[in-house]
Every structure is written in C-alpha cells, then in structure tokens.
Design brief:
Layout (H helix, E strand, L loop, with lengths): L1 E11 L5 H11 L3 E6 L5 E8 H11 L7 E10 L8 E3 L4
Parallel strand pairs: 2-5
Antiparallel strand pairs: 1-3, 1-4, 2-3
Length: about 90
C-alpha cells in the first residue's frame, strides 16, 4: 500500500547534513519526494512510497544524522498523489 507523509522536523537540524542524509535514506528504500530547510529552522519532508519504506524514513527522521539533535517530528498523512519521480533536496524556502 502506498502512502504520503508531510513531516516537519524541529531541533538542531540545519547545517548538520540532515537534508543530504535524508535524501540518501529515502533513495535507499525507494521513496520519492523532497526535503528542504525552512526559514524558521525546521526541516520539511514530503515523501511518497510503500508504507513500510515510509515508516523507515519516519523512524530515521526521529534521530537524523549523527550531528543532529531532533526535538520533534510533526507528521501529517496526506492523500497519495504519485507526484514525484525522484527524491531531491530543494532550496531553502
């Protein structure tokens, strides 16, 4: 079953390779979507894929890369749209 999630990760999550590592994790489990830094210091992730793969990514986001300090992960389930072809890092916005 396919699933789409919209995540907002808070904490010390910018400048610690969170985006690039998220991209690597997502690509390794076959997820499409994007990750980007937000101006308020959070990281935003929109991801689509198999439910099991999405769960792996969500769990990973609770820890992040070694230099990150994740305080919270806000999870919004959204209708699956099959909107993306790849998983990419987007410019901050």
């Amino acid at each position: 079953m396919n699933r789409r999630v919209h995540l907002y990760i808070s904490g010390s999550v910018q400048g610690v390779f969170f985006r690039d590592t998220t991209r690597q994790v997502a690509q390794s489990v076959g997820i499409t979507g994007f990750v980007k830094n937000l101006r308020d210091g959070r990281v935003e992730v929109v991801a689509e894929g198999e439910n099991e793969a999405i769960e792996k990514l969500v769990q990973w986001c609770h820890a992040g890369p070694p230099a990150a300090v994740v305080e919270s992960v806000e999870i919004h389930n959204e209708p699956y749209k099959e909107e993306f072809e790849i998983f990419e890092v987007k410019r901050s916005g």
